[in-house]
């Protein structure tokens, strides 16, 4: 597949810079992938499309406050993004404005008042520009970041210096069912759900099941290769428990549909069902879902609108058909839907 087939026209003003006033007040574009029909609804109407016996699969990863600010001892400003642990005491991070930083240098991590919080040793620069640093503390990275960090919003959402209301982003760039810390980007399809919606679906007879996939920064990496098959897909850690697998299999066997909330849930389920049947497993997935790939377990998905030339757009195109997806995206632009992480949602069934 040519990567240029993943391009579409999007006015910049349709890229959502903040969440909807209320989670469930987002708009919902409903695509019937069999006949290509489109319905314009609100996310609060999601229950109209779900049936007794269906199983909604949620990704319960919790987003770390992974963005932070720092400075050199010279006073030069730095900006970091925590990517993960690198051994017992070291962090693996991306570090902006770090061209002059030298291995062995001490950098100063700043709190949200932009005051020095602690020192860290800049240990080693990797070939991709990332760094290993060692903060001068025995506390877990999650605890430190909770004190100094900001929501790791994607580059297309502007928050200079962390923004005017960082607590709003730390709350709203997180699902209401987030539980297991480890993501550096949100599973954004889940952001539209409220406790009330989940409760009403449960009362209706819709099952819910939880999987975990820790979304990595690679999810935003654009495809630069001219052929999609030449793109190196990012890897992400996932876990599907025995209980969850059994619950999802039971729903499927009893005639219910498996409705994945987000491409992250899709990726987890299809990785775990690669042999044709869903089985408990965990590890790192590099599953690359592109048009032509067979889906073994997912019957429907709830998802946001994805970036042009992205692997996530290829995934939804594989599920619904690229022609239907591109028609739906054109409709969404014409109807002024809000796009990307803080934007509106789609239901594809």
Automatic annotation (TrEMBL):
It catalyses: 7-aminomethyl-7-carbaguanosine(34) in tRNA + S-adenosyl-L-methionine = epoxyqueuosine(34) in tRNA + adenine + L-methionine + 2 H(+). Its EC number is 2.4.99.17. InterPro entries: QueA, QueA_dom1, QueA_dom2, QueA_sf. This is S-adenosylmethionine:tRNA ribosyltransferase-isomerase. Monomer. Belongs to the QueA family. It comes from Sedimentisphaera cyanobacteriorum. The lineage of its organism: Bacteria, Pseudomonadati, Planctomycetota, Phycisphaerae, Sedimentisphaerales. Pfam families: Queuosine_synth. Its main location: cytoplasm. The gene is queA. One of its GO terms (molecular function) is S-adenosylmethionine:tRNA ribosyltransferase-isomerase activity. It is found in: Cytoplasm. One of its GO terms (cellular component) is cytoplasm. Pathway: tRNA modification; tRNA-queuosine biosynthesis. GO terms for biological process: tRNA queuosine(34) biosynthetic process. Transfers and isomerizes the ribose moiety from AdoMet to the 7-aminomethyl group of 7-deazaguanine (preQ1-tRNA) to give epoxyqueuosine (oQ-tRNA). Keywords: Cytoplasm, Glycosyltransferase, Isomerase, Queuosine biosynthesis, S-adenosyl-L-methionine, Transferase.
